[in-house]
């Protein structure tokens, strides 16, 4: 006996029950979209890493220049920051005021993907000197990536103050 509120449905032999899940085409489309997204993220990350390297290197150079100014004043010595283009390195030297003793303080490589130069300098080894009274020879150091983007480190001639600006 059947109650009035319940219904019994009898399935015919031809009717098939729909299986839960995804079709093969749906899975292929999702995998294609995920692969495309992963490829784009890889390109984006590789571009960003070059920018990150330039920013980190610029911070290292500006810290080295600030260190040179501070030490020149506190030790009453001349500090000389030198860009060696031939060896792709930068160096920091400490010199007595009578130029008798010269000590190498820092000797580090410039990353291959970056170029560093001192604006308006045709010297083979451009340099900036920091003096015991806080002033310097001043100048603008350019740090550029191969793509042309980069940073400028500006050293004030009168105060020896170091500022960093991003190229726009």
Write the topology of this structure.
Layout: H1 24-75, E1 78-84, E2 89-95, E3 102-109, E4 114-118, E5 127-130, E6 139-145, E7 150-155, E8 162-166
Antiparallel strand pairs: 1-2, 1-5, 2-3, 4-6, 6-7, 7-8
Strand order of the largest sheet: 3-2-1-5
- By CATH reckoning, the class of the domain at 50-166 would read Alpha Beta
Cα separation of the termini: 85 Å
Class from secondary-structure proportions = alpha+beta
Order of SSEs: HEEEEEEEE
| Approximate shape | rod-shaped
Mean pLDDT: 84
CATH architecture name of the domain at 50-166 = 3-Layer(bab) Sandwich
How is the biggest beta sheet arranged?
Answer: 4 strands, antiparallel
CATH superfamily of the domain at 50-166: minor pseudopilin epsh domain
Number of beta strands: 8
Task: Write structural notes for this entry.
- Strand 6 (139-145) and strand 7 form a beta hairpin.
- The mean pLDDT is 84.
- The protein is rod-shaped, with a radius of gyration of 32 Å.
- It is built from one helix and eight strands; from the N terminus they run αββββββββ.
- The strands form two sheets. The chain has a four-stranded antiparallel sheet with strand order 3-2-1-5, covered by helices on one side.
- The chain is an alpha+beta fold and 168 residues long.
- It has a domain at 50-166: minor pseudopilin epsh fold (3-Layer(bab) Sandwich).
């Amino acid at each position: 006996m059947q109650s009035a509120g319940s219904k019994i449905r009898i399935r015919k032999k031809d009717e098939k029950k729909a299986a839960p899940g995804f079709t093969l085409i749906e899975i292929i489309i999702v995998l294609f979209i995920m692969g495309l997204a992963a490829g784009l993220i890889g390109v984006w990350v590789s571009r960003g890493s070059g920018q990150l390297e330039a920013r980190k290197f610029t911070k290292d150079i500006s810290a080295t220049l600030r260190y040179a100014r501070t030490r020149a004043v506190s030790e009453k010595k001349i500090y000389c920051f030198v860009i060696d283009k031939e060896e792709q390195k930068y160096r920091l030297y400490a010199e007595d005021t009578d130029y008798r003793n010269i000590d190498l303080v820092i000797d580090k490589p410039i990353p291959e993907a970056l170029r560093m130069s001192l604006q308006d300098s045709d010297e083979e080894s451009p340099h900036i000197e920091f003096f015991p009274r806080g002033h310097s020879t001043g100048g603008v150091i350019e740090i550029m990536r191969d793509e042309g983007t980069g940073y400028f480190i500006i050293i004030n001639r009168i105060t020896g103050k170091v500022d960093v600006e991003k190229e726009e």
